[in-house]
Amino acid sequence: MNLELEHASYGVDETEILTDVSLAVESGEIVTIIGPSGAGKTTLLRLAALFERPTDGAVRSDGTDPWSLSRDDRLEFRRRIGIVFQQASLFETSVARNVDIGQRVRRSWPQRVGDFLERLTARWIRASPTVDDRTLGALELVGLRDAWDRDAGSLSGGEAQRVSFARALAADPDLLVLDEPTSDLDPRNTAILERAIERARERDHGVLLATHDMHQAERISDRVAFLLEGELVEVGPPERIFDDPRDERTARFVNGDLLYDENELLASL
């Protein structure tokens, strides 16, 4: 899936959150969005994941605007997108079942019934639970294959986030949308997830990632997009964005300088 935002804007009531954003993500590419809190990064991800419809402009997937289709046809596009949020959200069941759920909810109801009957028959014949190969493969990618039968409630925060990533990946999505997935993780869990993200790219998945970690953006990105106050300031390879940005605002941000509205600052004094 090649996804593109074309002059996309989004606002609520009288508040404009994103303004005229154009950004594409191709298969086998990691595009990272950086910017201060409140810049509109999460809103941009929600547009890309088809959670929200732009109030102006368009979001296109392989040249098609999913919002011009019927609800069922749009759902088919959405099923091709895997999403991982900042906080892991797991069900009170085993690790394997948490990952497997990510696959099942993307299937049609006839497929789900067939899967259920197949699992039920296999369990009756073997008298023991079975684990889907794709589920085990996704868990192996995040270093948790041997934890497939653990209760999700026994996991650490970093392990739970790795299971969330495995759940998104097990469905074999064309596009992964990641909203600061490593923000609360220790270095080890961060490194494991970063490697899993790079492996997803190697498998030709597109990845759209929002992060506050500048070193992470520099390490794993093919392109970096700097977002400020709902405006896409510039996009480019990480070596240019971090070493030779074209816009003064980008330079100030990556150098750690504060970015603010001078009128708002004066009003607060």
UniProtKB/TrEMBL annotation:
GO terms for cellular component: membrane. One of its GO terms (molecular function) is ATP hydrolysis activity. Keywords: ATP-binding, Cell membrane, Membrane, Nucleotide-binding, Transport. It comes from the Archaea. InterPro entries: AAA+_ATPase (IPR003593), ABC_transporter-like_ATP-bd (IPR003439), ABC_transporter-like_CS (IPR017871), P-loop_NTPase (IPR027417), PstB-like (IPR005670). Gene3D superfamilies: P-loop containing nucleotide triphosphate hydrolases (3.40.50.300). GO terms for biological process: phosphate ion transmembrane transport. Residues 3-254 form the ABC transporter domain. The keyword Nucleotide-binding applies. PANTHER family: ABC TRANSPORTER I FAMILY MEMBER 17. This is Phosphate ABC transporter ATP-binding protein.
